[in-house]
Every structure is written in C-alpha cells, then in structure tokens.
Structures
1.
Amino acid sequence: MIKYPDYDKSILSVISSILKYYGYNNGHKSLEVLDEKLKNKYENIVLMLFDGMGVSTLKKHLKPTDFLMQHFADTISSVCPSTTACAIPTVESGKAPIEHSWLGWDMYFKEYDANITVFKNTYQDSNEQIQDCNVARKYIGYHNVFDRIKEITNGRVKTHDISKYSDTDESAYSCEEMLRRVVEISKDPSEDFIYTYVEEPDAVMHALGTDHEYVKENVKYINSLVCEISEMLKDSLIIVMADHGLIDTQTIYMEDYPKLQDMLERRPSIETRALNFFVKEEFKEIFKTEFNKVFEKDFLLLSKDEIYEKNLFGTGEKNPKIDEFVGDYIAFGIGDKAIEWNRDDFKMAARHAGLTKEEMEVPLIVIDTNEV
C-alpha cells in the first residue's frame, strides 16, 4: 500500500506549531493538537527526535502501558523522501523539501560533477573530504529555526541544537549525552527551545532489521530515558517524534540489469529506496517502460513533472536547485526492495526513504512535565 506524505499533518507541521508559538508564521499548516497544548506557556519547549522510531516500531516493541505510548498524541507523516537527510533540514529550516531541496543522503551536484554525501561533505562511497567548502551548506543552505526564534523573540528565548549534526558545541552522540545536556540547560531560569537528535533506533535497525531483540531493548531504553527526563524537567513541554520509520528490505543490484544501466548518464543518487535516474537523451521515451518491466511491483517510478504535480515534496517556493537533484525520474520503494548500484555497496537489513506505511508514519508524543 502506497502512503503519500501529508504535509498538513507532518513533522513539518510540528515545527510550524513551534514557530507559531514563538510568533512566526512559516507559511505551512500547524498541528491543532499541538497548538492546543501550546496555548499554555512553558519555560522550556523540548523537541526530541529519535531517528527511525516510526509508529510501526513503537507498536511492535512497546506495550500500551509504556510511558511513550501513554503520551502518544497522534500519528503524523514524514516527508518525502522519508529519510534523515531530508527530514532534518525540514525540521531545522521550517521549510518543505520543495523549498530546502535536501532530498537524500547522496545528491548530485553539477558544480562538482559528482554525487556528494551531504551530511558528511564527502564524495559518495568515500571518506575523502571536500576541502574547498561544505557543498550542501554553500549551494542549498537555509536560515535555521534556532536563529529565527532568537530573532523573533529579540533574544528572550535561548535556542539549543543538541545533535551529532550540530554546528555548535552542544552536539550529542548518545542518549546519555543528550540527557545530561537537556537537564543542564533546564536549570537556567531563561526560556529555552531545546532540540535534540539521537541516531537510535535507526542505526541498530539498519544493521539488524526491525524485529531484532536488540531493537526492542533499544526502544525500551529510549522509553525509560524520556520518562526520566520528563520527571526531571519542570514547566516544560516535551515533544517526541521521529524523522521516518524503517522497513526490512532485500537488496537488488543495478549491475544485474546492464540494459537499464546503459540508459543512464551517471550513477543514480538520493537513496536506495528513492533513487533518481538521469537518462540519456536517446532513451528518455523508453526508460519508464523498460524499468517497469522489471521493477513495477517494488517501485513507483515517477517523472519529475509527476512528482511536482503530486506535491510529493510539499508546497512553497520551489528551490532553484531542486530540478538538478531530481533528475528525469525517481523510483520510490513501495515493496520491500532496495536498489544498490553494485555488490560493493554497504549492505543493510532495513532501510527507509520509500512510500510505505512503515516508513512514512511517525509518532507525535506530547508530555507536559507539569502533569507527570
């Protein structure tokens, strides 16, 4: 079953509600359930994002009586593609993917004539750092919500980005570091907006699959951690969500389909379940037919125009660079397959970025610490 993004009830809506709370309209619909909670005033607004902790994973590994499930407010939508490299810029910018244009882990930049891993600022499948600049920040940088909130509140509200991808010294690489930083910040009597990102349970599911016992232990640990923080913080609203969910996958390889490979101008990029194709001019009319002969049951192949017509990347002012990243087509996973270029590529047990319910549905969990 195909699950399209719903940007009116999504992770973008969550950040829209938070911006609205601080007095800024980003042009996107906020969430009524969150707006209702935010009618109250809090000393701290804490937005906690756990990578990959989709609704299906929570329901699989937690009981209804567990803390996170007791505070489960709603099921909301990820963005498209349903991947961290697209979702994090959505949260950090308050913009839809069509506006910020960060679509996936690897993206083709014509300025370098290469696929670049945007978060690492390296060439694809390489640890070779690009020395002259941070490519994504240079060509598709955005005004982040942390600065925006400080500006619209004239500095009254302090903002904190506690993430492994943070440009500040507040970065955290583990749940324990995140817990320590949040508690330290909450002791300050000022108003604070605190954003935290932790890469679990995504990392362990990529390695072991969504059903593994260690995943269950990981999710239960997150549940206890959020409970602990909620009991330690006063006068705070804690909002917990994920960037996407995951689905167990089987890997197939483009090198096994040389006829299709020969139709391409260059190696695809974005994600293994949201793969773009730059097609040679002489094959543009037949590529879709040939691709669907092989992959129609597992992938939804859409042209650039079809993607925009369906608003898969949301609405707003179209980023001038996005056409270069989309290519001629994108194949979105709708089954359990992932496409790697060749057998040398990294193997994973579970993945994301496709259009299934497991990947697209994420939780909205809301905790008023005054009521805990």
Note: The chain has two domains: 11-95+142-247+356-371, 250-347.
2.
Amino acid sequence: MTLRHLRIFVAVCKYGSATAAGKHLYLAQPAVSLAISELESNYGIKLFDRISNRLHITDQGRQFLDYAMHIISLFDEMEESMKDWEYIGTLRIGSSITIGTHLLPEYIKAFKQKYPKIKLKVKIDNSAEIEKAIGENEFDIGLIEGKVQHPQIIAERYLDDRLALICGKTHPLYRKEKVSIEELQKYDFIMREKGSGGRDLFDSTMLINNIELDYIGDSVSTQAIIKAVEAGLGISALPYLMVKEPLDASELWEIKVKGISLSRGFYIIYHKNKYLSQSTTDFISICKNHSH
C-alpha cells in the first residue's frame, strides 16, 4: 500500500463519495474505487458499507482513518520542515474569537520578530470548530476557551479567564449588586452560538443548577450581542475581555450571581500525535509568556 492509497481513502471520508473525492484529487471515479478496494483486500477489512448508493464508514474504517491521517500528516510535515527546517515554512493556527481578537495579535507580533520568514495561516472561529479542525489536522495548534472533548487532543491551560454576566442601563438589574441564580429565570437572554466556549460554560452552569432560561436569540457576533444588551433587549454572558470597555464606561453593568462561578481557562491545544517543531514550541512559549 502506498501514500497515494491513503490520500484517496482520506479524501473519500472527507468528501463523502468516490466521485467527489476523484474531483478533488483529479482522478477518475473508477481509480478511486479501485484504490479503496485494494486497501480493503490488502488488510482484509471493510472500510465502508455501501447502502442506497451512499458510503458509510465502518468502525474499522474509522480506526484506519486515524492511522491514515497520522501517516499523511507526518509525511507532509517531513516534506515541509526538511526544506529549510525551522526558519522557512508555515505555522497553521486556529483561534477562538475572544483570544483571536484580544490576544493573538500580540502573540503573532512577537513570533514574527523571531521567525520573520515563517508564513502564518490563521483562522478565527468558535472553540468547538477549532477543536474539530485540530482533530482533523487542519491546524498545527489551537487556542481555545474551555476544555476539550476530543480524546486525541492535548490541552495545556495557560491563562485564567471569566465570563461577565451583563445587562444594559435600562434593565431592571442595572446597578443591582447581587442576585440569586433563580432570579435570572425572569429575564430574556441573548447569547453566543452553541459551540462557543463561553456559551458551553454558561449552559453547563445553568444545567448543574437546574435553571431553565429563555434564550430569545443567539449570534456569532459578540458586538451585535453587546449592542442588543445595551439597547435593553436582554442579558448576556460574554468574555470579560470583550466587554471591559463598555463596563468601564458604565454602558453595561456586570451582574454578580450568588453561589456560582463563571471562571474558566484558555487552552493551547494540539493533536497528541503532532510533531511540534522548535518554532511551534516557541510560539506556545510566547503565548504563555505574553499572558502574565
């Protein structure tokens, strides 16, 4: 079996069919199907169930996919890093929105001073999407809010953070010192989308305390939520870093809730099978050193 076989198999898993994989790889569909058949014959396993003209990956296929992605990743890293080892290449970074907005620019500035020729590819998305992409080797490292669920990912907590529960000037809770968690059930909430680190923490905190809230809307845009809260449309729980300025300006009020904590951590994550080059290790060190 060759690296070509593995790349074809991974493409079929990613795109869902031999035809779609063939288009991506510039191969005819029969060539893709033949490669899958050769893999199944060579290892004596069934990689896909073929039901109603669709491919459904088997349990053996999922296990094989982990190996295939790891092997391809190692080969691609060897190809890239051997060209000029540490000083020419690409570092792929995925970041949550809060970290990407407020912290990542300083990390990148410090990194480029040491490695000016390394190209950085950055994507900012919610924490769940960054975690998923790390598991699929789309990034070398990720910076996320909250703990990871993926069993193949290593997470290093490097910074403490908290959510701020906020309301606008016209809200009944504005200027109120402290409220009970039960009192929150009286009011409307506007939150970040599910999958964001802050939303997951807030939802789990409410669930643990058997509190059901009325979510009247959610958004991927933190600024849109802040404007809605300032307009008195509801309460939200957002990262403190994102709302510090309007809080300092008294445009928003931070609501303290008795008996709960909305503290959390920021994490550096990477796949456990990932080879960490010196430049990647240095980037991780920069994140830790610039956060204290």
Note: The two ends are 49 Å apart (CA to CA).
3.
Amino acid sequence: MQSSSSLRLRMSGAVSILAVLVSGCTTLPSSGPTGRQVVSGATDPAAELKFQVVELDGAAFKKLLTVQPAGRAVGQLASLAREGRVDRIAPGDALQVNVYEVGMTLFGGSTQSAGAGLGGASALPDTIDPSVRSQPMNVVTVAGDGTIRLPYIGRLMVAGSTPYDVQRMIEQALHGKSQSPQALVTVVNSPGNSVYLLGDVTRTGRMPLTAARERLLDAVATAGGSKVSNADTVVRLSRGGESAEMRLGDVRPGSSDDVALLPGDRIELINEPRSFSAFGATPKVSQVAFEAPSVSLAEALARVGGPNDLQADPRSVFLFRYDAAAIAAGEPPVIYRLNLMKPESYIIAQNFPMRDKDLIYIANSASNPVSKFVGILNQLFAPLLTARVLTRNN
C-alpha cells in the first residue's frame, strides 16, 4: 500500500516537474525565433509586413549562375547624362588677347620693313610693307555681366561665345582702324568650364575641362583617386540641381555611368564601408566590414564563427535582405534559408554574394530552451543534493 502511494507521489511529482519545464521553457529568454517560426511567419495572414522565404538549394544555385552578380548597380549616374559644350566663355574666365598688325600699327606704331633686315628696302616695292607686329594685351577677365573691355574697341559681350567668336568680334571692331588686324584669343583660366571635386578624394579642388571631354573617372583619377578602396567609396554627382550616386567600384570606364562632365559639375567621394550583421546562435552578435571587393555567404559565416554547436540549428541559417528598389517595385522583402546539413549548401554558400547591410540570422535549435531550463534546474538543485550527500556521509 505504501509502495503504491509512493509511486503515485513520484508520478505526481514527475508530472508537476514536466509542467514546470514546459511553462518555464516558454518564458526563458532567447536570442531570436526558431527556424520553424521564421518560416511560418511568411504565411501568417495577420502579419503587417509580408515577406517570402527562398530556399537556397540546387535549383536556386542554377538560377544564381544565370543572373547578374549582385551589387552591380547600373544606370544611377547615367540618368544625369546631358549634352553640352565646354568651350563657351563664362564670367570669371581670364582671356589672353593678342593683336597682329602690318604696316602702320594701331597698337605699336610704325614697324621696320622685313626686307630691310634681309638686304635693304630696295629688295621689295616701296608701296608694300610686309612687316608684322604682334601686340599682346594684358590678361582681361570677363566681368560678371559677361563683357570685356579692350582699347580702341570698348566693351564686347563675350559670355556664351567661343574664343574663335571673340577673335572675329575683335577683328570686326578694328576694321578701318588698323591695317589687316588679326586677333588671337586664348583662355588662360576658366572657372566657368571647370568641375569641383570634394570629400574623400586625395586632392580636392577645381579641375578645368578641355575639348578632350573628360569623364567622371578621368576627373577622379586626375585628383589622385579615393582615399579608401573604390568598393567602399560612394561617388555622388550633382548637376543642375539634381544628384545621383553609386559605388565608385561599380562604375566601369566608358560605361553609361561614366558620364561626360559638364561645366559646374560637383563630384563628391564619400567613405561608406560595406558591412553585414550577424545575430542569433553565433559566438558573438557583430557587425562585420567587407574589407574586400566581394564577400560570399560562406566567407561571411566563417568571419562570424559559424553556427554555435551548443545552441544553433544548422538547418536554419537565414539571410535577411532588404532591397529598397525591389520593394518600391512591389516585391516583398526576401529571406534566404540555407540548410548546412546538406553538402550542396556549402557550394551554394561559396557562390552566393553578400550585399551591403545584409543580415545573417542563425536560428536556435528547438531543443535549446529545454536544455537551457534543465541547466538552470541543475544549478538550483545541485547544491542541495551535494549538501544531502555530505550530510549522509557524515
């Protein structure tokens, strides 16, 4: 009778302990949801933020080989491409003006005959004076209203004209005042036909444009390039009140994003290191910089120490990716799931490229809360059992 009562008491105690275990497991702190909870969240009709879970399996790997590598942004800077010229004179430009005259000169007085220096004036007819004299003027700066002022000519509106146009203006203005005047106009300094480089560039400042039509990468190279790697540098181009930006490492020479520069463009280089984050059953929650042109999912997992053997579920390694452009187009956020218990998953992870601000989450094992709670009970009752054993032995 006593044995049956004792058995009932033991059974009742076991059930009570089991109930405590179950209730305790549900209230224990955790580093995040289990793999099953993440997958079921994708089909939860009450969820306000919808997302989809994509399995990284053999079929996904074959599709991965046919698509463009991630991170190659195309067309962001190309949207600012415009037609324009770089040979127009603007306010603030400095011009060197030379006037060439023959015979009686307006600017330099009478000149000696060229024939006199070659054997006497008798060598040429008296009515012809082939001597030519050049009169360089001081460098003139285009005023804010777009004009310059020259002796015997007065003011000329030169803004928006080419140097050749100004030469013809000068020659027409001197017609009848000088004998066969010829003008040569050279742009010495042209702030109006320049671009400006600033930010994390080796040499900031102004760069004049030439008729060679420099492109974006030409200007960056002329300034010494970025202070950090191109992959971690964002180039921002501002033009006419608009701006666009993309990773400098994604701009290919001669591509549509390597736009031809126009006067007044501003090029800013910004240091924005790419990184990814790791959460869940990892040795340490961390944010890790790429520090390389590209990083695969396998490399990213290795950098954070991989799944924790004591608490992780290797079948539920998730990659959370938020693509703003895709979401703006109506596509939901994507969560990729990798099962590291399958050998093929390691090949897929080697070829799956990480993107900036990706988030890796390694789910906890479903048995982890039970193991954690049992460990807590052991810590609570182990001192009591030890004291009881010591008491009996004494």
Note: The chain has three domains: 35-69+294-368, 78-84+193-271, 94-189.
